Amino acid sequence: MGAGEDDDLFDPPGPRGRRRIAVATTMSLAVLALLLAGVVYQFAMHGQLNADKWSLFVQPPVLRYLLGGLWATVQVTLISAALALPLGALLALGRRCRQRVLRWPSAAYVEVLRAIPLLLLIYTFLLGLPSIGVRMPLFWQLVCPIVLTNAAVLAEIFRAGVRALPHGQTEAAYALGLGYWPTMRLVVLPQAIRQTAPSLVSQLVRLLKDSTLGYVVSFLELLNSAKVLGEYNHSIVQSFLVVALVYMLVNSALAAAAGRLERRTGRPRGAAPEIRASRVTATGTP
Asked: What CATH homologous superfamily does 60-267 map to?
């Protein structure tokens, strides 16, 4: 939806509305500041802000340990994304296929895997598969459930991107003699990926958050590494705060990348008035 369409749907607030927004914003910021001050005061009263509790995180062995956990998180995220993206694309195309033998299983997979909690799926790989003799490394006990769950979500993102494209794209490909799968692979899917790029990057943020469930399978990703470090050095609060800051920085970078992609793939701001003017000229009515 372009900027011009937003103007049609939402009227800008008047002077009274702007004053209310300013007052509400000021009050919200004041409450947040008071809460933050209360938290800092409680930390100081219990000695959680003492320098000896924070100097731990500048020691080279601790930094190497946390960086190892961060690298494990990055590995889980990248490999899960590399596997979930093509699987999601295949599910989206299979769900739009005219052949029932492909459409029905794809639809069933998407609906079922979207409904099953990721934590339950991880426990299935951790406890269920070993009971039938299937044993996997800790890394894949975490990655496989993440891939299976996120592939279902990505399939819906891809399907929405395909449906958003004009039907003329598909019809032109069929007119050139291309079949269904070549049309999807060469014409439709590349455009759908470009249209849904911001949503795909946002889903990558979810993949990063899903990796924090590594504690279930005792995989030492970043959050689990911080937990082990905090329990060993009696600095659990400091460890979690440092790791929370790292996650905020990484997620902010991914969010900024999604914003840049959205601006690059979105319609220019000046396009909406021109479209409305052309519609008026063509139909004679606004």
From this structure: MetI-like (1.10.3720.10)
